[in-house]
Design brief:
315 residues, Peroxisomal Thiolase, Chain A, domain 1, 33% helix, globular, two-stranded antiparallel sheet, nine-stranded mixed beta sheet, alpha+beta, 2 domains
């Protein structure tokens, strides 16, 4: 007789595919009537930032536009749930969700809102989507990120960048979807919610490096063949100096950092990572088995997500 419990069944693979996004109109940052941006204009342009995206459409309408495009690309069954990540508060997160579901339209599909992590909502939203997949056994989850400026200025000191009205969507499914996709290998987050502003000035760089490397250690301990490393690194559309620093913190070589849109798109809140991943795929830089490390961050949280490109087997 033994007290050993049977091994837990392996969790199904989770895949992301069918990316789409919706952006506001490009506006030269030199033309913005925004004291926060104009006060940093020389520094922003020196760091390679040129445009931001400004939209008359609300966050729900941006969300719905990207969601419709993702669903059209997937050309599959109606998703069993919607996970919407947003920091927008107008009129309310609840109303933003209802308006999004109506506009897609998916008015009979259950949804939930992920918020509270600033521009680092990417990993929490992915965890929520994965949780719905595994607990409710739905055929797929529509994962959407959408934000429209609600603060007085588009300038964001954290990251030294300017904010853009934007949305991005994809489908999250269990198992390979029969089309190119990205398998989620691991997700890890480090949080320091008690880091007060005064300490951030004194300890900022050291805190970020420690947090990112703690998350990286958990990533490498949870993926197969960690010695393979990663082929590409993606973070937010921040200033060049900030991106270089985050690349170093993640122990990635600078030549593997991919950021094609920082000058033209500005910082698209939590949608940055999905938009950039889609661009990397569209550029033809990914083949079967290639790995990508994504870093999404806020002022007090740092999340790493490891992905692997999966191509369908030949017929």
């Amino acid at each position: 007789m033994t007290n050993d419990l049977p091994a837990a069944p392996a969790a199904p693979e989770v895949h992301l595919h069918s990316f789409a996004h919706a952006l506001g109109d490009p506006v030269d940052i030199t033309l913005l009537d925004d004291p926060g941006v104009s006060g940093r204009l020389d520094a922003l342009t020196a760091e390679g930032l040129r445009h931001c995206r400004v939209s008359e459409r609300s966050a729900p309408h941006l969300a719905a536009a990207s969601a419709r495009a993702a669903l059209a690309a997937a050309d599959g069954p109606v998703p069993g749930a919607v996970v919407l990540a947003t920091e927008s508060r107008t009129p309310s997160p609840t109303q933003i969700l209802w308006d999004t579901l109506r506009s897609v339209p998916l008015p009979r599909t259950p949804g939930l809102v992920v918020s509270g992590n600033g521009c680092g909502n990417f990993a929490p939203a992915l965890r929520a989507a994965r949780g719905v997949l595994l607990t409710e056994r739905v055929p797929g989850v529509l994962l959407t990120f959408a934000d429209r400026l609600t603060t007085p200025s588009r300038y964001m000191p954290d990251g030294d960048t300017e904010m853009s009205d934007s949305a991005a969507s994809c489908l999250v499914t269990t198992g390979p979807p029969g089309r190119p996709s990205f398998r989620v290998l691991a997700v890890a987050t480090s949080v320091q919610a008690d880091l007060v502003p005064e300490e951030r000035v004194l300890k900022g760089a050291r805190t970020i490096i420690k947090a990112v490397r703690e998350a990286l250690g958990r990533i490498n301990s949870g993926i197969p063949e960690p010695e393979r490393g990663f082929d590409w690194f993606i973070t937010g559309n921040y200033s060049a100096t900030t991106r270089r620093f985050l690349t170093t913190a993640a122990q990635m070589p600078e030549e593997k950092a991919y950021s094609p849109h920082h000058a033209t798109h500005g910082h698209c809140y939590s949608a940055d990572q999905l938009i950039t991943l889609a661009a990397l795929e569209a550029d033809g830089r990914l083949t079967h088995g290639r790995r990508v490390l994504l870093l999404a961050s806020s002022s007090r949280s740092w999340s790493l997500t490891a992905r692997e490109r999966v191509d369908p087997a030949p017929a």
